[in-house]
Write a structure and sequence with these properties.
4 domains; Rossmann fold; alpha/beta; two-stranded antiparallel ribbon; about 550 residues; about 10% strand
Length: about 550
Amino acid sequence: ETTMGKHRDTSKQRRYDRQLRLWGEHGQMAMEDGAVCLINGSATGSETLKNLVLPGIGNFTIVDGTDVGAADLGNNFFVEDNALGSSRASCVTQLLQELNEHVNGSYVSDDIAQVLESRPDFLHRFSLVIATQLPSKELRQVAAICASTSIPLIAVHSYGLMGYLRVMLNEHQVIEAHPQHEVPDLRVLAPPAELTAFINERYSDLSALTTAQYAHVPYVVLLVKASQQWAAQNGGAAPTTYKQKKEIRGIVESLRRTDVQGDQNIDEALNAVNTAFSRPSPPKSLAALLAKARGRVSELAAEVHGATVSTEESAISLGLRRQQLNFWVLSAGVAAFVDGEGEGLLPSVGVIPDMTADTSTYVALQTIYQQQSLVDMQAVHAHVQQICTMESLPADLISADSLKPFCKNALNLEVIEYTTIEAEYTAASASASIAAALDDGASSGALYVLLRAAQVFRAERSFWPGESDLSVESDMPVLKQFVAEVAKELGLSTCAISDDLVHEFCRWGGSELHAIASVMGGIASQEAIKAITHQYVPCNNTFIFNGMTGTTTSLKL
């Protein structure tokens, strides 16, 4: 295995400025701690890895026993003409390394099957494996290792005018989902004591305020006052139904004053009624996650205590389990908070949106919410330490840097359980999704079945259907036969795929077009970043790109 050097310079912050805005410094740290294994430096693999090297993945290793051929010169920007006949792994590693001097690159000039035969634990050293253009036999072998060691795996295949992506992240935890529409956590129905005191002190009598003062009453204050008035009229109940929120709107409308022009704060309050009058309690899916957190902590703690670290490979594998453990310890801490100090509510986020108010008032409000968030985090941390003590885990297992974003994003925590690739090949559980895709009019289901059939064809005959221009017509009926076999394996009662599409698939001849490889490389790298940073919600679990129609389909197989 050959390693190429890593250099550091002071321009790192400037280089990564834009992506730091997307996933923050902690996300960037996760990227720089990442170790990726790319199986095959094909056009698809090179494009995928390029999009990880540029944002600063820590280490990568390319495993590829292929030499640079004429096809590579036509579709892969990371090989050069003078590299014809030389190791593709070496060539791609060298050119990718030039994109970012902060990244360590290495390569192994052997097929993955040979590597695993001589070093069965080779993949254990990586935090992510990306397999591109891999035959089904080798893919299943790699997937079995990744499943048994909880190493995330992304499989990508560009085939003619289609692209296939399969994500297998085992048990994947999403900490920062970055929802498109975040609802401000204003606690209108359960205002912190400091907020209530602030409102009572400054806004006990709204009618006594001057015109200028009234125009700058923050809308959260107006909503709390309206909520208090409504509760007084309804026996202390909380307004939660549509009809009740409509009554709140009426109260807010009644707060308009003729001497105030514009009433921007009133309009802001009216616009926020639907979202502000929701209790920040765990939704059903999150409640289920929190309910099993404590049990998962005990399971994972036992695994960590029983593990031994003798090699770099086992250390990284253990690190992945500890990463899981940290998530569940934090989840258990949040669950204990919800059951205790939170009185059914999640920890306060501590961030307020922009609103009409004078600077001093806005800063005072911001401080109140931030202080409440800090108090809640300290309570969660106390629960976390108690759990660590009970499970004989280090007291400093959870750092303040990881506690803050976890509590802030508690509402959108998610755990995705991925099915294994082996199950996709051996069970008929995927039939419903594929059957639906066969009827979607976008040919995505048909393309998936055809790719599976083409892989069987290649395993039987050592070449792709239509790989020779002269064999397109003769390979068609054979491919159709394999389509029927794959459909039977998948448990499909019918699998009507047009002869035109079968002919088109044969015409592609297993080719890897750069245009498709570039698209799939971009998509695969996005999924890789989600897996590494535990930010944004990854695909679950199959993605099909139809380059003929420019359409995409996601399937859960």
